Amino acid sequence: MSKSWDANSEHLLRELAPQVLGVIARRFRDFVSAEDAVQEAMIAAFTQWPREGIPDNPRGWLIQVASRRMADQLRSAIARRERETEVARDTETEAATIDLESDMDPDDTLILLFMCCHPALTSSSAIALTLRAVGGLTTAEIANAFLVPEATMAQRISRAKQSIKASSVPFRLPSVTERAERLRAVLHVLYLIFSEGYTSSVGAQLQRLDLAREAIRLTRGMKDLLPDDAEVAGLLALMLLTDARRAARTGGEEDLIPLDKQDRALWDRGEIAEGIGLLTAALSRGPVGLYQLQASIAAVHDEASRAEDTDWPQILALYELLMRVSPGPMVTLNHAIAAAMVHGASKGLELLKTLDSDSRIAGHYRLDAVRGHLHEMLGDVENASRHYRIAATRTTNVPERNYLMTKAARLQEQ
Amino acid sequence: MKYILMMNTMKAGHGVPNWPPKDLQAHIAFMIKTNKDLRASGELVSAEGLAFPDQAKLVRAGKNGVPITDGVFPESKEFLAGYWIVDVDSPERAYAIAAAVSAAPGPGGQPLNMPIEVRQVMSGPPPEML
């Protein structure tokens, strides 16, 4: 034991988790048990390392502990079934003498990401499994982040692994033909983790694990593994450019501050610069995808030093592109807002009409919130407060509901 | 997304305590199994049964915030008997769980088909991320 535990050690430990899992899963050809064994090794490290110092070869230490767990499991399984201890003893000796480092594969983390974000899984299962197997987080931490009991989260992860086992996904990179689609699934899961973190970052929830930071860390790792993929870079840029506004988007307690009212001096210049740098490099690389476009829109907002300096014509043009690349009712809605900012609120209201017949969004609170805003821009107080009130009854976000109710109440006071 | 499933039952006296032992046991076993299944599916956030309403109090603040308590609720016919909070992937899944709970066995093993109020817990994403 040489180095002592410090602020970076936890980060190091989490980075090692998927590498160790790759070695164990490949060696024992059993992802499900390997994932449990690595989780146990991680928990052992979290208890022992801060006390006793970090081992000289931390990866080797984790591999040793996890292999021993695997051997223990094998031995008890065999003992139960056949009472043949000879086989188990052989396995144990073998596990202890394997050449640890030669079993490493640089693609392991990537393979694990594809596996944990397999389309056969529901998104909540994929999120939980990704955070544990690739993120190196403990079940307790993940449970805490989603405000569910640890036992529930453990079951969710265990079931996710059983579905992976049942679908018999091989432990290797997806074939070239599947690659693009599977990558989209991975990026979507990372995006959802970020978005969940962004949701829970509102209000006094300091004890909760910061999922937005975790999503950024995982996406950064992915960017290192796939440095030439423009959408991976686009997603990382989108996260950074959004996260940059974190300090400005909430007031004292749980009140939500909309973009045009935020104190822009609080925006994180470092994150904005990094996001724009990533985005600029990505855009020059080839076909423009969904995340690069969303990141571009975030960048235009971030570049305006005052809300009234926002380059709305450029945002409008970007939404028009986004409608072609990735059409959907939310994109149409945001396009209508941009159109209102460029051509006036009446234009925006006219564009929103097409959404009333779209079952994916008709009745969604966001449609009424935007209508409220556009009517307010036109000075139509009555319709504005009516739509804000409807939106307030339909949203499922507390700060958003408080914001909308206050909006409606203030307008009626006038 | 999280939902609360609220189970309302009729006023005490007409309810569970008067059933024959066999039916009562079947009902209790059903509720235990429901919780076990929801835990195993990784969806259970919490579940609580409430004490019978006989000892319930209605509390209001009186002068200087001093509590004034009323006895049992005289007018209400229905009482909240218990609730589940579940974390599910869709509203349809929450409705399916509610329907399963609604059909808990009653007297003679017949399904009760109780009304279960299903409400979403406020935990949606903020507007920027939609």
What percent strand of chain B?
Answer: 25-35%
CATH class designation of chain B: Alpha Beta
What is the overall number of helices of chain A?
A: 19
Order of helices and strands of chain B: EHEEEEHE
Helix content of chain A: 55-70%
Provide an overview of this structure.
Chain A is mainly α and 414 residues long. Among the domains of chain A are: 9-103; 363-414, no CATH class. Chain A has helices spanning 9-28, 31-52, 58-81, 85-97, 108-116, 123-133, 139-145, 150-166, 176-200, 211-225, 230-243, 269-283, 290-303, 312-325, 329-343, 345-352, 365-377, 381-394, 398-413. The model of chain A has no long low-confidence stretch (mean pLDDT 88). Chain B has 130 residues and is of the alpha+beta class. Chain B has a single domain (2-122), classed as Alpha-Beta Plaits. The interface between A and B is medium-sized, with 36 and 22 residues.
Briefly characterize the structure.
The complex is a heterodimer of chains A (414) and B (130). With 414 residues, chain A is an all-alpha fold. Chain A has 19 helices and no strands.
Please write out the topology:
The complex is a heterodimer of chains A (about 425) and B (about 130).
Chain A: H1 9-28, H2 31-52, H3 58-81, H4 85-97, H5 108-116, H6 123-133, H7 139-145, H8 150-166, H9 176-200, H10 211-225, H11 230-243, H12 269-283, H13 290-303, H14 312-325, H15 329-343, H16 345-352, H17 365-377, H18 381-394, H19 398-413
Helix pairs in contact in A: 1-2, 1-3, 1-5, 2-3, 3-4, 6-8, 6-9, 7-8, 9-10, 9-11, 10-11, 11-12, 11-13, 12-13, 13-14, 14-15, 15-16, 16-17, 17-18, 18-19
Chain B: E1 2-10, H1 21-40, E2 44-49, E3 58-61, E4 67-70, E5 78-87, H2 91-102, E6 116-120
Antiparallel strand pairs in B: 1-5, 1-6, 2-5, 3-4
